[in-house]
Amino acid sequence: ATSPLHTLERACDYAHLRGSRIYVTMNTIILPDELDSALDCARGAYLRGVDALIVQDVGLAALISRCIPDLRLHVSTQMNVHSSYGIEAAAALGAKRVTLARELSLPEINRLVVAAHELGLEVETFGHGALCICYSGQCFMSSMIGGRSANRGLCAQACRLPYKLIDSLDPDRELKSPGDFLLSPKDLCSIDHLDRLASLNVDSL
């Protein structure tokens, strides 16, 4: 049987011959006893030709920077970078690109792009995708309700289920609500704001 790393190597060769890049996501929290195998996985991906790793776990990011310094590191949106402190932390980890938290406004993105570029970091923002009722990378609702951690890639999407709005002072009284999916925000769609994002000097969508 063909190994996953062999398949990855073939995919990298195929993409590179066509002028495209391959980024591998390792954007979940890594448990302490998994760090060695996660680093081995990162090293295997690097040796097969991936162009960057997208990482959430701060400990893994620090290890990659120290042990595989030539491997390009991107900070995942799951790391929840939404302030200049997060930008500074990403730079200290040796990241080359930071993908901002999805919940930011255009003025907030503007400030963080300026801060990142001053530190030599590229900035990526989401152009389209799901929004969570919790900030990117900080959701514990799935863990609490179903024992499945969103930060381990196992989100049960409990926020997508229908709920009723109940009066806390009278639990038998259901309040009028705009619909059933009260914890599920609309998906992010920036198609009407691409010119604004471009004017902010965002490096990637």
Beta-strand portion reads 5-15%
Amount of helix: 25-40%
Structural class comes to alpha/beta
Uncertain regions spanning at least 5 consecutive residues: none
Mean pLDDT: 89
Based on CA inertia axes, which overall geometry fits? globular
Task: Note down, in words, how this protein is organized.
The protein is of the alpha/beta class and 205 residues long. Helix content is 35%, strand content 14%.
Keywords:
alpha/beta, 205 residues, 7 helices
Any chance you could write out the topology, listing elements then pairs?
Layout: H1 4-17, E1 23-26, H2 35-47, E2 52-55, H3 58-67, E3 73-75, H4 84-92, E4 97-99, H5 106-118, E5 122-124, E6 128-129, H6 141-146, E7 166-167, E8 170-174, E9 188-189, H7 194-199
Parallel strand pairs: 1-2, 2-3, 3-4, 4-5
Antiparallel strand pairs: 6-9, 7-8
Short description:
The chain is built from seven helices and nine strands; from the N terminus they run αβαβαβαβαββαβββα.
